[in-house]
Design goal:
The longest helix has 17 residues. Helix 20 crosses helix 21. Helix 8 links the parallel strand 5 and strand 6. The protein has an eight-stranded parallel barrel, surrounded by five helices. By secondary structure, it is of the alpha/beta class. The protein is 46% helix and 8% strand.
């Protein structure tokens, strides 16, 4: 028996299909394999949070709370884990404290165990209330460090943040490498120091976008990491996690042997291979190979495809290289925020606008104005004073916790949605995503929602093209294409200034 078995969290029911298949796996597609997942003996199964809540309502016409209850009934012993965006909960803005508390309370009541809480700016103030609520209702607090690279993001700084999170009541620490930037030897040093100096269990989350996820997890394991995130092989790699079976096989016979059954994992992989082929073929994006540019520009895979899409909408796909050069400057001006939801969308859209306008900050998005004002929290470094002046024009910046200025929201949401809400869970769904929730409730009231036990199938209509941003180096990626005459940027930039797409 292994002296120090490595725990495995499988992301197959959340981040794996969010990264590779647009978060479109339905509850009905999960149900047939749940008994086998229950039998594996995972440390935990990530199956909720992130973009799954929004996507369930918006695209699948499913109640995300019902998914949690159904899966818990079928898997009574495996710990469930979710990704929580701190004061943002599962959305893209800050919510009042009473909404945060009610969400956490109901999540635990419906079967959630482990809350991986993060803030896009690594601002502990935006995590503190959610963590207090998790502790109050008996959940496990896994506080996250969003890993990134900049002059102000050092191993020393991350270790100090880990100490702060421990003082705030964290039960464990997650190194959240959302953009696949943490190289294996850095992973070793960061993990080792967190273990030695913070003294809490450490879990490592990374993606394979840059191609070395397995190496990163192995070095973290050597440094004593307690748990790592992987994804069952048939929905892994690319912009998702390293394959579970590869990690399990690599460690067999060592002191870190996971003890998981490769034959059982293979049966699960075969099932999800069928789901991917028969249920989710429409969402194959072609991003299935390593993309080293993530190290050069620090963009998560989803951000790359999003920016290419924005440029295409403007008839400006040939400006891709210009955006790549502009984005690091915008990030520096904004104090080097980690590029994760929602900061990746905020920084990326502003870089696109700067390029299309031919002038930096001629037009500034409302999200950048809010960021400069302090409504998203405290930036990792000082903001460029010229950007702040252009964005705010002398308007006072806030220095306190952004949520302190928000009025309670639960009773207001309850009154607005009225009889369409059948439970407190419905009210929270409406508070987080008003238009999507209302549309779902109206369909439900009309008897037009399919049973959640039926899989939602999206067959492939035609071969999906490989996105230009992933097909080749930047020059080739933006070769001129046949397109209609380019629209005048001023007439269509509203799409960029208002568009906030989902992410990790």
């Amino acid at each position: 028996m292994a002296k120090n078995p490595l725990g495995i969290t499988d992301t197959i029911l959340r981040d794996a299909h969010q990264s590779l298949l647009a978060t479109r796996m339905s509850t009905g597609s999960m149900l047939p394999v749940l008994e086998k997942l229950e039998a594996v003996g995972y440390h935990s199964l990530e199956m909720w949070g992130g973009a799954t809540f929004d996507s369930a309502l918006r695209f699948l016409q499913e109640d995300p709370w019902e998914r949690l209850r159904v899966l818990r009934a079928k898997m009574p012993t495996t710990p469930f884990q979710m990704l929580l965006r701190g004061q943002n909960i599962l959305g893209y803005r800050h919510y009042p404290d009473d909404i945060v508390e009610k969400f956490v309370e109901l999540s635990i009541k419906n079967g959630m165990n482990i809350f991986r809480t993060f803030d896009a700016l690594n601002d502990p103030r935006n995590m503190a209330y959610a963590m207090d609520c998790v502790a109050k209702y008996g959940g496990h607090n896994q506080a996250s460090i969003c890993y990134t690279i900049s002059p102000v993001h050092t191993i020393d700084a991350f270790v100090e943040l880990g100490k702060d999170l421990a003082d705030m009541g964290a039960d464990s620490i997650c190194i959240k490498d959302m953009a696949a930037l943490c190289t294996p030897y850095v992973a070793y040093e960061l993990t080792k120091r967190l273990k030695e100096e913070v003294g809490l269990p450490v879990q490592f989350h990374t993606h394979n976008t840059s191609g070395f996820a397995l190496g990163t997890l192995m070095k973290a394991a050597e440094a004593g990491v307690d748990v790592v995130d992987t994804a069952i092989s048939s929905i892994s790699g690319g912009t998702a996690q390293a394959p579970t079976e590869s990690m399990v096989a690599t460690l067999q016979g060592t002191d870190r042997d996971t003890g998981l059954d490769l034959l059982l994992l293979n049966e699960i992989a075969e099932y999800f291979r069928q789901v991917r082929t028969e249920h989710l073929a429409e969402f194959e994006a072609g991003l299935d190979t390593a993309d080293i540019r993530v190290l050069l520009y620090q963009m998560p895979g989803g951000m790359i495809s999003n920016l290419v899409s924005q440029l295409r909408q403007q008839g400006a796909a040939d400006r891709w290289e210009d955006v790549l050069k502009e984005l690091p400057q915008v990030r520096e001006d904004m104090g080097y925020p980690p590029l994760v939801t929602p900061t990746s969308q905020i920084v990326g859209s502003q870089a696109v606008i700067n390029v299309l306008m031919g002038e930096r900050y001629k037009i500034i998005t409302q999200e950048v104005r809010d960021y400069c004002k302090g409504l998203y929290g405290r930036a990792p470094a000082e903001l460029n004073p010229e950007l702040v002046e252009k964005a705010l024009g002398g308007e006072e910046r806030i220095t306190g916790r952004p949520a302190d200025s928000l009025e309670p929201g639960f009773e207001k949401a309850k009154a607005e949605i009225g009889d369409l809400a059948r439970s407190d869970e419905d009210v929270i769904s409406y508070a987080l995503f008003p238009s999507q929730a209302r549309e779902f409730f109206e369909l439900r009231a009309a008897g037009k929602v399919r049973p959640i036990t039926e899989p939602r199938i999206f067959p492939k209509a035609q071969a999906a093209p490989v996105p230009e941003a992933a097909a080749s180096p930047p020059k080739a990626a933006v070769a001129p294409v046949q397109r209609p005459e380019r629209p005048t940027p001023n007439r269509s930039l509203w799409r960029l200034t208002t568009r906030m797409n989902g992410g990790r």
